[in-house]
Amino acid sequence: MMRRLPMVLAYLLAAPVLARPAATLEDLRALAVQKSWAELLERAEEVPPATRSDTWRALVTEAATAEVESATAADDKDPFATARKARALGQRYAFLAKAPGFSSARDARGLKDLERCLELERSGCIDTYRELTVDASAETTLQAARLVKRGHFAYVAMPLFASAVRGGKEAGACKDEALAEAVLAALDLPATDARAGDARKVAFEWCWSALGARLKSATVGASSYFLANTCQPMRARKALTELQNDLCKDEGL
Known about the structure:
This protein is mainly alpha-helical. The chain has 14 helices and no strands. The protein has 2 domains: 23-136; 151-253, no CATH class. Helix content is 63%, strand content 0%. Residues 1-19 form the signal peptide. Keywords: Signal.
């Protein structure tokens, strides 16, 4: 009997492995009924591209949204675990970016992950949030900026406020009071600081109509850092009074 074992083993190893049949649309529907969202997403791409209909996209969207919404509380080892999952799903299935349900779930969980990161006082929370939420709505990014500003110096949130403005395309964000406070605070940093650079773009390129009056007033009695950040762009916009212009010249600006 022992002599036959190697032969049996060799036979089993040589026998062809039967591949699992590719999933069909009906299989995905069944998985949706069972709320087996992870398995549905795992097998969705088995459906041939030519037959990936609107129904297929709807099933994938439902599963992706449920996976993000039902994710467990943020992992202290990686506060952005859910945001990473949402980002990966969005990259895997590009059409999810246009699905309101998924977008809302993605944005909401991203904010929660940022809040948890800040609570844990981890470094790099803002940079990681920006990296993982490039598709977040302007309003969500504005909420994230306000969240950061509540627990830090106003200028710390400047990169997020700049993202919320999105190159001037989101004019509504320019009217936000917290954004104005962050801009003024960031302009009081050295001109070489990246946050001061963000503030200059927001103040003089994207949100001038909303912030111009505040900037003119702030020039009176301003610090040398503030003047270094504002004199030239204010002069270019002919927004300096004669006295302010002389003040800038006194600073060599």
